[in-house]
Amino acid sequence: MAVVEIPNRARAWALACAVFVVAAVAQRLYWIAGGRWGYTACDRTDLVDPAGGCGADQVVVLPFWSGWGAVGVGVALAVVLGCTVRFAGTWATAGSWAAAALLLVVAFPLHLVFEIPAALAGRPSDWRDLGARLVLVAGGVLFAGLANASGPRRGPAVVGYRPVPLWTRRWAYVAVALPVVGWAVPHALWVLGVPIGISERELNDIERNLSTPTGVAITLVPPLAGLLVLGLVQRWGQQFPRWVPGLHGRQVPRRLAVIPAGVVALTLVTYGVLSIAVLVGRLLTGDTRWSQVWDGWAVTATLLVFLGWGVSLAVTTAGYALTTSTHAAMTASPGSERP
């Protein structure tokens, strides 16, 4: 592979990525050395103290992926960064895109969509975990910016509005309907005290642990976020609407729509597949009984909702990307574009 200097526009992104990698590795080495600032054990202890990391100071031996495993990932990110800077080109840029996708998937933005509104509404939350996830999101954005800036310049962008195919619209409507029917409706019923699809014990846990503002936030945020999918099939997803100051009528950057939608779709599919795999494994080992699955069928169904939501969003994103691609604009007939 020939040595090619990255464009000037990518140097600031490369420096920011380097700062992120060095800081992340330094923090993990600090934890390995015995420090616990910023560390949380709420996902692996029975202590109920989210503000204090659930007894993080009492953890003697770090789990592998919190310590040396994370250091290894940091070294791999440093190698990707070095290749992108040293060998600017298609393959090096692909490595940066892969690093961005990895960081964003590990951050699991869907968790942030649920937990941040609940925390702001007053629910006790593990701010160390939320902070770490936000840092991972920032790292993913930095590597995506580096990949975008160091990649080859392409032809002229699509100008104007180009209608998406009918199949893209249908998948978009599915992506909007699933979080409403499969998430908002059952959660609203549970918050109201209706035990549909869950046991009385689970309903009592919800009533005991969720305040009204928290329950409303958890119920409404996912479907409201899902409405953004409509931007992939409407004019305002390609051209900024009139009510946006300073940008009305201008073209929406294609990657501004494709990258976040693609990352969320990948996250939803990953979560759905892994959750279903865990459930199947527990059924095979006998840790979970089929009677429990039937009693809590609504909870189990949410796993399929996440998977279907991710697949429908991915297909919609692909349709948007194909419609707004430069190649599609060049091959379209002169009279095919609507005003």
UniProtKB/TrEMBL annotation:
This is Uncharacterized protein. Keywords: Membrane, Transmembrane, Transmembrane helix. The chain crosses the membrane at residues 12-31, 65-85, 97-118, 130-150, 171-196, 216-236, 257-284, 296-322.
